[in-house]
Automatic annotation (TrEMBL):
Residues passing through the membrane, by range: none
SMART domains given in the database record: HTH_LACI (SM00354)
Domain of life: Bacteria
InterPro entries: HTH_LacI, LacI/GalR-like_sensor, Lambda_DNA-bd_dom_sf, Peripla_BP_I
One Pfam family in the UniProt entry: Peripla_BP_3
Record GO terms (molecular function): DNA-binding transcription factor activity; transcription cis-regulatory region binding
Coiled coil stretches, renumbered: none
Native organism: Janthinobacterium tructae
Keyword Transport tagged: no
Name of this chain's protein: Transcriptional regulator CytR
Keywords: DNA-binding, Transcription, Transcription regulation
Amino acid sequence: MPPAVPSSLPTETVSISAVAAHAGVSVATVSRVMNEQAGVRAPTRDKVLASVAALGYRMNHLARSLRTAESRMLLTMVPDVGNPFYAQIVRGIDTVAREHGYFVLLCDTGADAGRERSYFDLLRMHRADGAICLDPDTVQHALSHESVSLPWVACCEFDPAVAVPYVGIDNHRAASDAVGHLLARGHTRIGLINSDERYLYARQRQQGYLDTLAGAGLPVQPQWVHTVQSLDYEAGTAATLQMMAQPDAPTAIFAVSDTLAIGVLSALRQLGKRVPEDVAVIGFDDIAIAAQIAPGLTTIAQPMRELGETAARLLLQRLANPAASVPGVLLQHRLILRGSA
């Protein structure tokens, strides 16, 4: 019989040698079982796993990573962890990563190129196996020369000219759908609340807005276009108060994120404006709260969780075969109609 082990033995003191002695096998056999390697008969494997469970053994992943040059860690670099849009993407990444035996380290870069580079140092030092970057495409350009040597993919923000796998949506078309919906409702004075133009989505959505108005033969009034430097609710509120103070204020507002659009609704309530009777509002993303507010927010829905899942799969493809060509992927958006427009 295998020797008994006191039940009071702390988990962290259980060594692989103790597991081997308990199971009556060699340390090498335990190692092969724990690393899911071939060459161990099923009865022996079952005996080792029973001893692992009985002793509460936990494999030292750091030591394993030093032996195998694999950390089983994936970085997810997010410019603003407080934005609910990114939360669903991260959940999608984490789901796929865990299915394949990886853990996810969430990195808040603040859209800062220096902080992004410091996280990429973890790849260079093999402290992480791969990375998914949601930073602005303008920030990603600093890493374009390492697109082949470092295993990373771009999510939401990307430059097709850089040889990095990416996943996102057609922001220009999505913005055109949003503005087209407002035009179909009879609006001709349509304002835009845009975000930091370092971001690809901000540039593309603004261009979609401009092109759609031009296609309808409507002039663009500069005073109806406001650019803010954050996606906070307060930024949307402040921009709307300025926009609506004009004598020829818009009758509809397109905000490039739901958080900004919710700020728009707050400003219109302060001004005593009815939505959508006086001013229609449309957002972008379809975060969870968009359906809970009154009136419900009409918005462009991004497949947030699917964006994260796809990014993780693209990265795993790249890790499995670094020499393979991994294509970029554009997912579909949807116009969600609710009470605000």
